[in-house]
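Lab channel / #folding
Pinned by the channel admin:
"Please post every new chain as: sequence first, then the structure tokens as a reply. Keep commentary short and put observations after the output so the thread stays searchable."

First post following the new format, from NK:
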Amino acid sequence: MSNIVSIKDDQTTEVMIGSFYVRRDHEGRYCLNDFHKAAGGAPRHKPTLWVRQAEELISELAKGTDSYPLQTKAGRYGGTYVAKELV
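Reply from TO:
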């Protein structure tokens, strides 16, 4: 899969998968909505549905950290942003 870029550089604000850009917020979290689009955008794989299933994992990752691993932003440039461990 030569279209997938390795996610290891914490200084970049975007990652490109094929022709899709995956945005990052100021805390380095990745936009699940952008990953969803890059994967084909099937309604059954919406980020909101995924978050419901991953609540326990998100809670475990939140323990002992200063930054919460998930943030939802509303609006035109919003989305569901998650920590690298959840990507």
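NK: Strands lie at 14-17, 20-23, 30-31, 70-73, 79-82.
TO: also worth noting, The two ends are 17 Å apart (CA to CA).
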